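## retry 2 of 3
previous attempt timed out at serialization; input unchanged, resubmitting
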Amino acid sequence: MSGPSGPAAFVIPFWSDGRPHRLGYLRQALDSVRAQTDPDVFAVVVDDCSDSHEDRAELLRWERDDARLRVVLAPDNRGPGRCRNMGVRVAADAGADFVCFLDADDLTHPDRVRTVRDALAADAEADLVYSGFVVIDGDGDEVGRDRLISSVKIIMDDIEKRPLEGHDCWVSVAVERDNLTIPSALSARTALALEIPFPEHCRFFEDTHTWLRYSASGAKIAFAPAIPSRYRIPDEKEGSESRRRAGGIEAFNRMRVEVTEPGLAEAVDLAVRRGVIDPAEGLAIRTRYLLNVAGILLSEGTGGVARDLVDQARALSFADYLRYRDAYPVVAALDPLPPEQP
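## retry succeeded, writing output
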């Protein structure tokens, strides 16, 4: 695969209830796109059938005044996954060689497009380029890690201390990590993003679902540490707005496995078809995934969800549960007695 010579597209899902900060944050996001040091770039904003008709109209006014902005109005509200898929299709039709995902309240690094273009040109096999991120508050000020919830700190620490690169990184993401990175820090060749779309039936964790399938399809991942995105969490004690919209941290964490475990199952099927693993190895990965996530959730204080996941791991493959249980401290905390065949 040759290096990209065409434009890059930023794909930005957006929804507004009319509160002023919605358009305010989006304007800042678009300003960060306009500030790219590589000028061959445009943005696709996909409005997810916003409640605010005034803000939808304002987006169309922005589009008329900016030749590098395309606005797509979704006919109904289905969440960021469907919006990104719509945006990728618009980007492909406009000739974009690669897409940079960006959430409407986040900011991208000014060198992102140039760095991603160089990385893809340097490695013809690379399909994905990702970076780390820093957390900012509602005012755009950087937030110290001591003020962040554990799951956000885990992702940041993993990226800094043991970044993943190469083929089949999905296994490590599943069995020993929380995620690869946030959407606003990942860029993909347009062809891959078309081939492996985001799930459109879920509103949360659709990114993890997709990163797993990207990697399991054979995509090679490259890491670019010098272009961290700025991830906005207005109230750092509660985590992202997604957690609030899901009904709180426990409801949000229950959705984690409901969404990502089917994505992992699809990733396993992709890898089996490629001959990378056999079905037995896939079952072990799925079992280990449940134990891994249980540990993450226990650290966030959602012990009931964590215990359910340990029970699911036992039921899914008791042999693999016995084989790997000692590798996950959560098992000692939630299932300390010698296990018996259920």
